Amino acid sequence: MKVEVIRIIEKADLQLAWDIRKVVFVVEQNCPEDLEWEFEEESTHFLALLDGKPAGTARWRQTEKGIKLERFAVLQEARNKGLASALLTTILKEISGLNQKIYLHAQLQAAFLYAKFGFKPEGENFWEADIEHVKMVKL
Asked: Domains (ranges, CATH) in the chain?
């Protein structure tokens, strides 16, 4: 299986990423759809391909607090095949020279993945879209 991550430039690729997010967050996890589409314009989006087919996505954006990594989503049939790690590796490489705090809001079941990349929990757990999260900061 070949995993490839591309930085999204074309509108058609962005639509593929949105389709993945809709399946994972809105359909599977019952997240309110209006929350899903915030901050699209100021975000840098990525698409993960599994054997050439769109199967995962993530984005990052600049905030007042630093660089926030967001919207990591992998289609159910493509999970546990390295897509989330490939997305994270690609994004961290892209932002490495920006010399700012890097953080994210991890769903608890995904926190172990971010921990492998040097992220540490910070503060109390909290609920977002009826899913328990923890803020994690890259050290």
From this structure: 3-138 (3.40.630.30)
